[in-house]
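Section 5.1 Outputs to date
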Amino acid sequence: MRTLDDLIAEGVRGRTVLVRSDLNVPLDGPRITDDGRIRASVPTIQRLTGAGARVIVAAHLGRPEGGPDEKYSLAPVATRLGELLDTTVELVELADGPPRLADGAVALLQNIRFDPRETSKDDAERGALADELVALTGSDGAFVSDGFGVVHRKQTSVYDLAARLPAYTGGLVTTEVEVLRKLTEGPSRPYVVVLGGSKVSDKLAVIETLLPQVDSLLVGGGMCFTFLAARGHSVGKSLLEVDQVDNCRRLLDSGRIVLPTDVVVADEFSAEAAVRTVGADEIPDDWLGLDIGPASVGVFAEVLSSARTVFWNGPMGVFELAPFAEGTRGVARAVVDATSAGAFSVVGGGDSAAAVRALELPEDGFSHISTGGGASLEYLEGKELPGLAVLDK
């Protein structure tokens, strides 16, 4: 893969560079609630503008259906990106043609997914959109892939553009790949993986891939209740994937999966619910588990204390609601402690990265916080990621 360093060395002053960033941030109305992905995009853009490039950023927000939708406009993102870059970032429309940019200036294309061709399964449709995007860059344009959170998608702005323009990895993508290689190519041991989130079915493939490679796999979040059911425990009204119980039973035979010993349960899914902590085998029939308990945090922390490599993906509970945030907070702090003791730790993006910021945990307490949850998991599964594979051609 050619990198941003290679592009800068070739010279970019006066050239238009189209950068695919991942700016898919959570919004509350027009307010950005977590700007982590925007901040992560800034270094690559700054390097290009500092070298005199005319930068057009392409990105998406949410899942608009069939066309433009004001609630998915990138207008708030353009404002925040401009603040971080200390410049004006104009939001532009593809239909208006090439924006008039001075050397070192930046424009942000309106949500690329407003055009349904972006996500089309039809190669010709995606290719037609790619040709229109290439036309924005002129005869000496270039493409920089810097949205790691989308490299597992075969989409126009991720895949087809890279096949049409001289293509390079941005600093963010380069770093993400280097980090994930450390997890797949001879990680220091003990190697401990912490997995949370809602469903076993969402992470079954990565569990099956990782189990032979890790020393311990700690399971929390909603997915732990299907594993507890596989142990023969009643889980009340907790999230349960009945069709995955046999798979969980088979996975437990490895002897490397560590489950919660206690859980925080509630009589309803609400921050105002009645709450209690019970043993993992004592969940009342009419209650549901929404977090791992303090004893479980202690068990997980003990395993993490000796780890030399840690990968964490998925919260331990419904951290967005205060009564069910302590499991995630406690395990995250245990990962921070392991890092300070010399472990190499990776937070696998998505809800895990959001939890770090929402719970005001120290971001520099982890070796790396990924911007791509799904992409990270697919990389660890050993899948070919289209947005990376095309950069090798």
